[in-house]
Amino acid sequence: MSNPLAIDGGTPVRSQPFPAWPVFDHREERALLEVLHSGHWGALTGTKVPAFEKAFAQFQDAAYGVCVPNGTIALELALRALGVGPGDEVITTPYTFIATASAAFAVGARPVFVDIDPDSLNLDPDRLEAAITERTKVIAPVHIGGHSADMDGVLRVAAAHGLRVLEDAAQAWGASWRGRRVGALGDLGIFSFQSSKNITAGEGGIVLTNDAELAELCWSIHNVGRVPGGEWYQHERLGSNLRMTEWQAAVLLAQLERLPEQLALREANARYLAERLAAVPGLTPLPTDPHVTQHARHLFAIRFEPAAFGDRSRDEFLAAWRAEGIAATSAGYIPLHQSPAIRRALESRFEVHDLPSFPVAERAAQNTLWLFQNALLDDRAGLDTIVEAALKIQRAWG
Ligand SMILES: *Cc1c(COP(=O)(O)O)cnc(C)c1O
Asked: What is the pTM of this model?
C-alpha cells in the first residue's frame, strides 16, 4: 500500500515509529531457556503453567485459573463449562471481536445481541431484560478496550433471571470495577494473550473463576476429561486437549512482572493525551465511568465529529492521520450483527433472516477512532505528535 503524502504534501508531523510491541528482555530469554533445558515442555509435567495460573488469578482477584492456548478457546471452554449447548442463547454486545459471538455458535448456541452504552461502548444493562427469553442461559459482557462493563447492572439482571455471567475480559488485564479486578466478578471470565494484547506470549488464554466446581470442570474439559488426582486413562467426561504449553506460560510470567509498571504508564499517558486532545474540537476521548477504578488501556477510544473537520469522514481523517505518521490507529469493529459470517451463521443455523438494528453500536462503529496500547507507552513528546497531527489536518480542512 502506498503511503499518501502528508496533508500539505510536505513532511509528516511524525517520522519515528511508536514504541515496538511486544516488549521483552532477559527475563523472557532466561525463562524460555529454563523450559528448554528442563525437558518439561508441556503443562502436564511443567511448573510454569501452574505458576502462571496462580499468579494471574491472584493478580485479577480470582481464586482459580485454567490456562488454554488462546482467548477464543477460552470462551468456548467457558461456555461448555457453563453447560451452554444447542437450544441455548448467549446475550452479548455487537461491538466486540467476532470470537465473543462465534464461541456461542461453536457450542451450538445462538448469540443474541444487545445494544451498547455510547460512552463505555459496552453492553447496556438497561437493554438486557428485553432480550431475555426462556432459552437465555448466559450474559457475556465484554470489557471493551479495557474499560469494565457495568457489572453492577449485568449482575443484577443475571441474578433476577437466574442467568450465568461470562466476562469476556480478553482486553482487560488489570482492569477493575469498584475496586475489584474483573474476570471473576461473574461466574467465569476469560483473558487473551494474543500478540496485540497488553501482555502476550504470541498466543495464549486463561479462564478465571472463584467457583471451585467450575474451576475443576474447566480443568477437566481442557485436559481430555481427566479429573484431578485421577488415572492417566481415566476420562470422566468428553473434553479436549486445550492445554497451554510451558513456553507460553514462561513468557507470560515475565510479561506479568512488567504489567503493573506498563499499566501505570499507559494510564498516566492516557490522561495526558485526553487533556491535550481537549485542544482539538471534534476529537473527544470517551469518558471513563467513575465506577471503573482501573482502566486496562488496551484501546484509547476517541469520538470523531465530521463537522469539526470540514465534514470529512472518519475514514478520511484516519487516512490523513496515518499519512502524518500516526499509524497505531484503527477504525475499530464492524458491529457483529453486520458481519457476513455472523449473519450467514444465524441464517443457516437458526433461520434468523432479519436482525434488528443496534443504532448505538452502528454509530460507534462509524464515529470511533482507536489508538493502540503501544502508543500509550510513548514519551510525552511522542504523544504530542498525535495532537499536532490532528490540529494540522483540522487547519487544512478548515
Ligand atoms: C482478542 C480477543 C478475543 C480472542 O482472543 P484470541 O486470543 O485472539 O483468540 C476475544 N474477545 C475479545 C474482546 C478480544 O479482544
From this structure: 0.97
Location of each CATH 3.90.1150.10 domain in the chain: 259-397
- In this predicted structure, what is the pLDDT of residue 8? 74
Contact 183, 189 (CB under 8 A): yes
If you ran DSSP here, which 8-state letter would residue 191 be given? E
In ligand 1, the atom with minimum distance to the C-alpha of 171 is 15
Is residue 110 scored above 70 in pLDDT? yes
Q: What is the pLDDT of residues 27-72, one digit of tens each?
A: 999 999 999 999 999 999 999 999 999 999 999 999 999 999 999 9
Q: Name the pLDDT band for 9 (thresholds 50, 70, 90).
A: confident
- Which architecture characterizes domain 259-397 according to CATH? Alpha-Beta Complex (3.90)
Q: Does 367 contact ligand 1 (Cβ within 6 A)?
A: no
- Any idea which fold 26-255 has? Aspartate Aminotransferase; domain 2 (3.40.640)
171 lines ligand 1 (CB under 6 A): yes
Distance CA 277, CA 269 (A): 12
CA-CA-CA-CA torsion sign (134, 138, 144, 148): positive
| 205 pocket-lining for ligand 1 (C-beta < 6 Å) | yes
Cβ 194 under 6 angstroms from ligand 1? yes
Look at residue 1 in the predicted model and tell me its pLDDT.
40
Taking residue 72's Cβ as centre, other Cβ atoms within 10 Å add up to 22
